[in-house]
Amino acid sequence: MQVSHRDEHGAETVTVRYWAGARAAAGVDTETVPGVRTVGDLVGHLVASRPALGPVLPVCSVLVDGRASTGDDPVPAGAVVEVLPPFAGG
After folding, report:
1. In this structure, how many other beta carbons lie within 10 angstroms of the beta carbon of residue 59?
2. What is the pLDDT of residues 23-66, one digit of tens each?
3. How far apart are CA 19 and CA 31, in angstroms?
4. How far apart, in whole angstroms, are the C-alpha atoms of residue 28 and residue 22?
């Protein structure tokens, strides 16, 4: 079975998963986002669509398919992006 990485309008999509405080700010666990090419594009889209993420995203780690990524790093269609705020532990 082939998985589609396009939305109902044919735009390429990525899956964004939020963790901990990022999840609370986003108000959702997971969402599908169309038409982003870079981490910077994605962050801009997320802040525009979910303003509560504005103060949270600058301190978060962004992983694209399990790899730490920033700004101009590409986000390929079908990628899974994890948004992880800082956390303490021991």
Report:
1. 10
2. 999 999 999 999 899 999 999 999 999 999 999 999 999 999 99
3. 12
4. 9
Give the whole-angstrom CA distance, residue 42 versus residue 40: 5
Find out whether 81 and 74 touch, Cβ atoms under 8 Å: no
Instruction: Enumerate the H helices of 1-90 as residue ranges.
Output: 20-26, 39-49
* 22 beta partners: none
Domains and CATH numbers, the chain: 21-84 (3.10.20.30)
Report which DSSP code applies to 27: T
Decide: 14 and 32 in contact? Cβ < 8 Å: yes
